[in-house]
Structures are given as structure tokens and as C-alpha cells.
Amino acid sequence: MNLSAQEYLAKLLAKENLSVQHGNYSTASFDVMNRVLRLPLWEDKGKDVYDLLVGHEVGHALYTPADGWHDSEKKIGKIPRAYLNIVEDIRIERKIQETYPGIVRRFKSGYKRLFDDNLFGTDDREINEAGLMDRLNVSSKGRGYIPVEFSDEEAPLVKEAMEVKTWEDVLKVCKKFYDFIEENKEEEEEKPEGTGADFPSNDMDGDDDAETENPQGTTPPEDGDDEDTDGEDGDADSEGEGEKTKEPVEPGHETWTDDNFRENENELLEKKDDRYEEDKQSEYSSGISKANLKNMLFTYEEADLARTKHILQDIDYDQRDSTCYTSEACKNDWEKSKGALNSTASLLAKDFERKKAAFEYSRATTAKSGKLDPLKLHSYKMTEDIFLTTTRLAQAKSHGIIMFMDLSGSMCEIIEDVTMQAITIAMFCKKVNIPFECYNFTTSSWHSSSIREVEQKGGEIDIKSSKVVEMFSSKMNTKTFNEACYTMFAISKAHSYSRSTPYYLSGRNVANLDQMGSTPLIQTTFLAAEITKAFQRKHAIQNTNIMFLTDGVPDGIYVEKDEYADVKTHRSNKMINFGGKMIQGEGSREIYENALLRLKELTGATIMGFHLATDASSFGQGLYGIDTDDKYGDYVDFRETIKTWRKEKFSEYKKAKGYDNYFIIKIDRKKLEDEFVLPEGKTELKDIKREFRKFSKSKKATKQLIGKITDAVAA
Q1: What is the percent of the chain where pLDDT is above 70?
Q2: Can you give the three-state secondary structure of 469-504, one letter per residue?
Q3: DSSP 8-state class, residue 653
């Protein structure tokens, strides 16, 4: 169900900018002061039922005073609460339908479904043998779907109930129904002693005056009503204090249709499947507000300022050269590494341009120019093709790439390799003039500490410690781009556990914004939707590629407590509003997969995942959840799979884990040189051949991976 559409419907029906809030609520409610309409998570019984329920609750929000809501504990004389519910429902539903005639059909079809589902208990009893209020309830809601009969004496009262206009009218009619039922009850059985003084008879003149003086709709106590409304007990009831209990009903005034609906109302709520002994609802989250998505994001300029401040203020003067941003040894290492990265980026660029040209020529069209071709005139007797022609190449799509790189602590072993991948792709984009943006994501290094001050409402996903930092983008000039690439290179060296360099940069010597934390993949996916849509608008992109470079294990997510939620939930299973549509999952991995699928729906982008693995164990972790048939569960099959992966240096999977293309890339702990260098002591011809075969094999694997990536990007 599209919750955004239903929220817009509620606002349109209300003709005001109501705050509509879905949540784990047992029933709908309306905060009159703050203008907040809270709606439960109803089971999807079709659009008609949902529109009926929304329209009904908006009607209450607009027209029903606080004393008129069905869960109000305010006593109004001896009128049973069910009487008020039934007649007030008639009033508010008629007003909504008069204002919006187009919703009439939704109400009729919706109530038909509810009656078919026996929510009012009409399948179990003969309605025409029921009391007057039950027959009125079924007649007003069913609108003829279930035939209901009324006597000649009852018909005028029913007509009056169907025409009530104000809350005061509802009170008057309910009194008349109460008196009418009392009188008919007295005719059939002996009148109990003292009954006549408990409630006024049909003399409504005095009641009219009382109602006129009381516009809030609360009826003042009549003679004999003191025992119900006076004293401390009455005050407690009127204020809604103390434990809520069901109001006792006098004999003869029972309303089983209303009682059944209140009891069965729980059946309308969305429930978890029967894997659990007890029916519970998934924990609902409204997602992440746009304001807090903005709080998660740090631009390159903001990050650069934080790094400069760290160098100047947070580090002692004699230690400033030891920071990753200023280390001379690190800068020298970067100068050596740039050439190899640039070489791989050039291979990517050449392969991309070749495939782009192939696309254009494969869809080329030939048109005659209308001018004679002198070189073809000699064949005019044999063919009509003697005119000059022009070839029109198909226009290739405009491409764009957005990358999100995992900077969590679990990436320490491969962070250098992941960073090199990100820089290489960025260099490739620069060479072929593809717009691009690259970000890293993690949380603060201190558990649950905030990076920025954020205000989160109940039901929102916790993002207090999440951060997404811009690394580099196509909007940067060459100087800034090179500086940004070095900065990420240096940060990766500071966090690396490989110790592959003669120098070591402590991870403590980086700014707080660049510290490693955990893996907020789900939160990042929500932000990725906003970033991508803005990116597409800015560059008029036709083919967008979103790339996630990660070790693939998302954090669990915490939902801020909603003080109004009163439905039991399964904490592990969550329903999250992502761009107006619900995504659901049992645990963070399933939620992340569904979040990626929703990201694709919202952006139309190709989603690519890069899982970098060093051994069979980390490969298996990357493979987790790809194959729904679990064919890799058999050890023999897995052995063959891992063998192929080791040989090819990567594995590719399509439509896996929410990704369109998913790559598991092998990272060698012992890095091979990007240029062939004969190792010392290897002077014999057989040694040279062997070492060169090793080098060629690694370059071949790189070219194969490049081909796969450019296939996906150029599609």
C-alpha cells in the first residue's frame, strides 16, 4: 500500500495540511491541538477499504469533538457510548460523502468487504431480529447491501438519525432512541421499581435549551443523574484518568454489531505471518526525514574544513607531519601509485568508448540525400540505389556514476584495495567525461555518539551517529580532484591493517569525520535515493549507475520509540516507509536487499555491488543470500565455485541481493606489481617465463573485470 498517497488523500479530504502519522496503533486517533491524525497499519484489504477507513477517520478529525470519539471515557447522561458511536458515524460519513461525491462508491464497496469479512458479526445472527440500534448500524453502513426492516414507529427516528447535522443533534437523537427503547421495554415487561426517575422522558423541550447553552456537546446532569456524573468518580471518568474499563450497558440497550466491530477491529490490522506463536505486528518506522537525511551528509568542503581544523588544533605542533593528511612518506607513496591507477582507468575508458561506439553503429540508420552519386550512375539500369546516402548514428545515452564506499572498521584489511577501486573508477569517469560523485559512509567511532545534533521523532530510524562524507566528484577542478584522491588514499593508509608500507599512520591521527565506525548501509540507501534524484536532475542523466563498495554486512537498525504506539511488535521484523512505499524485512540483511530494490524503483538506476574478499571465508560471506535455491549449500558445489573464483579473480552474479550486478572480487594479500619487474635473483629463462606468466595472468583478470564493469555501465 502506498502510504504517501493515503496521507495525501487524508490531507485533501481535510482541506488542511494535517500531519498524518502511521504507526503501531490499535486504532485511529486525532490530536486536536497539534492537528495530527494517527492511523494504524491496516491490512491491505484493497483500496476501497483503505479509502473508506481514511475517509471515516478524517471525518472524525474534522467534525467530532473530543467527547465523541469512540474511545472517549466521558459519560453523557445514561446514553450508551455505542449509541453515540453509531449515530456520530452516520453524521461524519454523510458530511464527507456530501463534500466528496466521488468517495461514495469507495464507502459502499469498502463496507461490502467488511460485511463479507463478518467484522460486524452479521453472519452469526439474524439482523431483523436484533435491536433497533443494531439494525440502524447495519442499515446506515450497508446502504441496502443487507436488507433491514423497521416498524412504522421506528421509521421516523431512523430518518431523523440519518439527517443529523451537528453533535448536538447526535445527542438529542440518541436520547430519543434511549427513551424509545425504554418505553418499548416497559410495554413488554413489568417496569422495575424506581426506573422512571433515572432519566427524563420524551419531553425534549427542556433538553433543547440545555443543549443550546452547551455548545461543546457535553450534556449537563439531569435530575436523578447525580449518581453518574457528580463526585470524584465522575470527575475521574470525565478526565479519562485511571484504568480504562468497558462501560456497563443496561439490559435492553445492548448493541452487538458495534461490540463485534470493536472486538474485531484488531483483525483489520496488519499482522506478521504465522511463523510466530503469537500474532504481532512488524515494528513500523516512518523512515528518515529529509532534514535528518541532510544531517547525515557532509560535503567535501565541510570535510576539508574539519581536516584542516584537526591538523591545526587537535594535533601537537611537533606531530603535525605524522597525520595522514601531511605525511611526506604517504605523499611519496601516492606519487608512485597514481601511475598504476591511471593505467587501469585508461583501460576502462578505452573499453567503454569502444562499447559506446558499438552501440551507436549497431543502431545507425541510412537515409538517401536526394542527390545523385556520380560513382553509381553506371548501374542505373540494374538498381535504383544511385543516390548519395547519409549515415545517422544513434545517440548514445548519457551516463552517470555515484559510488558509496564502506569505511567501517571491518574493512580495515581491505580498505586500501577498496579505496583504489573507488579512485580508479573516478579517474575513468574523468577521462570519458561521465558525471560522477563518490562518498564514504560509516558511523562515529564512539558508539551512538552524534556527529551532528539531530531531532528525531518517534518512529524514525536512528541516524544520530551515521555519516556520509563526499570524497570527490566531477564538479571538482583537476587540482581539487587530485587533492581529494590523495586524501582518501592517505585515510586508507591510516586505517589499513596490512602494514604493507614501511611507514604506519595511526588511525587516531585522522579527523573525527574520517574515523571508522560500523556499517549503516540501510541508512545510506535512504540517503542515496535523495542524492541520486538530485544528481539526475542536475546532469539530465539517462543511465545512472549506483555502486556500493563494501564487505556487505549492514548494521541492525534502531527505531525511535513512539509514545503513542500500543500494538505488540516483532522487533526483528520491520516495516519501513521508504519514499511512500513500505519495505519489510526479517533482520537487517533482508531489509537492505528490499531497500536496494526500492532505491531502483525510485531512481531507475542500475545498482552494482562490489564485495572484496581475501579468502574462502570472506568469499562465502559475500555469497551469503545470493542463491535462493541454496544450491551453494552443498560443499562440493561450493568447492567448485571457490575454485573458479580463485582462478578468475572475481565472480559476477546478476539480480542478486537487490543488486543488478554483484561482483565478488579477489584481493591478493601479497600484491603484484602493476608493471613487470623481474625479482632479484631470478636470472634464468625459466624463472623469467614463470614470473611473466604470473604477471600476465593478473593483468588478464583485471581486463576481464574491466570488461564486466564497462558492460554494465555502457548498457
Answers
A1: 70
A2: EEEEECCCCHHHHHHHHHHHHHHHHHHCCCCCCCCC
A3: E
